[in-house]
Amino acid sequence: MYDTAERVRRAKRAARQLVRRQERKALRRLGILCAALALALTGALTHFAGSIPGTVQGAYGATLLADSAGGYVLVGVAAFVTAAALTVVCMRLHERDKRNGDNHHEETKPPTAEQ
Fold first, then answer.
1. What are the tens digits of pLDDT across the range 71-106?
2. Residue 94, φ and ψ in degrees, nearest 5
3. How many CB atoms lie within 10 A of CB 56?
4. Using CA atoms, how far apart are residues 20 and 26, in angstroms rounded to an integer?
């Protein structure tokens, strides 16, 4: 039989594992949603652009502007989605560290005159 402190410790550990599992599942769903959105935007771009899909002759701005600015839009959307996903991941990591009590970035208070 475990004492109260051991039961509380085990319950907290189980709760942390459950939260981590749920966060991983949410991140996985977010990744799937981002991939589906990127594929849908790529399909829409190739459908409405009226050109052969994937035929860019170079990675220069003048080449992308030859037919339309669709390449710029696609790159901009992809950069935004990547930045949004990275922001969400960083925020979740920060919240997890704060919950676990890892205060690596604590400000040190200057000593007062009384000390």
1. 677 778 889 999 999 999 989 888 888 888 755 555
2. -65, -45
3. 13
4. 10
